[in-house]
Design a protein that fits this description.
two-stranded antiparallel sheet; Uma2 family endonuclease; globular; endonuclease activity; alpha+beta; Uma2; 26% helix; 4 helices; 184 residues; 6-stranded mixed beta sheet
């Protein structure tokens, strides 16, 4: 008896691609404009994300939110992002798989040499398109932070920055806090 080749009917390539990356053993990956990218942050990169998470802690408790680097789906595209940090309401996070950018309150991306341009341009545009209310870009190469707010049809309509490291970043409502960037 010979083995019969198994035919896979791919009627929806987007679903097949997103399913496949969620089943890669041992690695975290994301898809940016159809390109699968492994996520291997350096300790310096993780340090910045952790400094932000620590500062957000009291506000997260007050708002009933969680912060993490869970999956964000962008339906209708070949994009599946894993942000460095996303803030979401606790009730939305509980039991959730991938979320949509508009279910977040804040998305933070910390650049690395390998992905800086993607975070600066591609992700900024996609997060605005998918209505993420706040996008904070921490650019380690440029040593600056830029806060994008109020997503519109053509991108974010309000931009604060780039602000050099050491300059506080004001996170608006519902956060109503200043983010200290002096240790970035």
């Amino acid at each position: 008896m010979s083995a019969q080749p198994h035919a896979y009917a791919v009627t929806d390539p987007e679903t097949a691609l997103k399913y496949a990356i969620q089943h890669i053993q041992g690695d975290r990956v994301q898809i940016v404009e159809g390109v699968i990218q492994p996520i291997v942050p350096s300790w310096d990169h993780e340090n910045v994300a952790d400094l932000i998470r620590e500062q957000l802690g009291p506000v997260l408790r007050r708002l009933g939110c969680r912060a993490g680097s869970g999956n964000l789906d962008l339906p209708g595209t070949s994009n599946w992002y894993v942000p460095d940090l996303a803030v979401v309401p606790s009730d939305v996070a509980k039991g959730a798989g991938a979320l949509l950018p508009d279910q977040t309150l804040l998305i933070v991306e910390v650049t690395s040499e390998s992905n800086a341009e993607t975070d600066r341009t591609v992700k900024r545009a996609r997060y605005a398109e998918y209505r993420a209310p706040l996008y904070l870009l921490v650019d380690r190469t440029e040593r600056s932070c830029t806060l994008y707010a109020v997503p519109g049809r053509l991108g974010y309509t309000r931009v604060e920055g780039p602000l050099p490291f050491g300059t506080p970043v004001v996170l608006p409502d519902p956060f109503d806090m200043e983010l200290d960037t002096s240790e970035f």
